[in-house]
Amino acid sequence: MTARDASALVAALRRGETAVWLRPEGRPRADAEPLREGELDGARDRFARFAPVLAALFPGEGWDGRIRSGLQPFPPAAGEPPLWVKADHALPMTGSVKARGGVYELLRRIEAWAASDGLVTAGGDLAPLTDAARRAPLARRRVVTASTGNLGFSIGLVARAFGVGAEVHMSHDAKRWKKDRLRALGATVVEHAADYTEAVARARRAAASTGAAFIDDEDSRDLFVGYACAGEEAAAQLAAAGVAPTPERPLVVYLPCGVGGAPGGVTAGLKRIYGEALTAVWVEPVASPCMLAALAAGGGAPVSIYDLGLDNRTVADGLAVAAASPLVLRAAAGLVDAVAAVRDADMLDWTREAWRRGGLRLEPSAASGFAAVDAFRAARADAGRPVPQDATHLVWTTGGALLPDAEFKALLRLRGGERGAA
Ligand SMILES: *Cc1c(COP(=O)(O)O)cnc(C)c1O
Prior knowledge:
Layout: H1 3-14, E1 19-22, H2 37-57, E2 71-74, E3 83-87, H3 102-116, E4 142-147, H4 150-161, E5 165-170, H5 176-184, E6 188-191, H6 196-210, E7 213-215, H7 221-228, H8 230-240, E8 251-256, H9 261-274, E9 278-285, H10 290-296, H11 326-331, E10 338-342, H12 344-358, H13 364-382, E11 392-397, H14 405-413
The protein binds pyridoxal-5'-phosphate (PLP).
């Protein structure tokens, strides 16, 4: 990408238009910290050992305690390629992709605490944690985290289920119902009239001053590895559905991107399996394109979108992040093929469309992947590298199943140009 291309992208974003960054051909970048096999083995094993505990703490119809989502076809309209949906919006416990990453790091910490309290042996059976009396010592422990809503909500929810104290710092984007729900569960919610990056900085300081465990969405390897486990899950489902991607008939995956942990981890997990047969497209709002900005500038370091004249105000609260995770830039930025920045109006249209056509209850962040399909195909065609007709397109829907009815109905009525309700 030349400096002129990068400034043309920024100019389009400032006008509020959809923009797509494509990785320049022949310029793959090695990742400084690629996934290691042992990391995935460890995470897979921990998830499996926690399954009976989670099933007991979050009893759901027939749920076996495994954090998995469905793969389903999405009914195409005329002119659209066939689409698959990876339904993380309906993940157990949290109704968002955060059940894979942030929650994984929390589980690792809970296991370590339980082992140091002598409740379990590290790496062993976790059944004692299903018993409220036996896990009572965990009440002395405390986690702190910060988010635009879903990460804090997810970590607070799961921490409280174990009786662990939770202090959740929320940026101004966070929705009222998530804060109310957390408070009702006994979590401490600290509201900031500040954006995500600032809320994380304040939460990090608060944790350091009290010695609480800080779950760092911007800089956590555990969180990244938890997300990466989704790769083999999706690949097994695709194989069962008869999808066998090749470099000539690639799998194109559309992943909503906030600070980058979720799309980074999932992409790293998928890339290990598919290699060149995977095309990873990350999706951001036009007002919060922090990953696009960093990659267009060379990918070495975060770039603040405020410095580009953008305001980080978007209906996609889950993606309202002004600066990308340095850890993700080191560990996965070399794997991304494209970043699409899409408009609020299009995310809202797709929130309605996903509900009408597929019965999917999505928040706008989670509908962003649908909005990116056409934009990405058009950008590749313009660049003289059209996406093969028989490519498989997979939209990763990342959150929304727990949206209260009134919230969801209000979203379905929102049009572009309007802001989301608080
Ligand atoms: C958190 C979140 C994302 C993106 O995850 P990051 O790790 O912040 O990039 C996408 N969609 C939804 C609904 C989310 O809550």
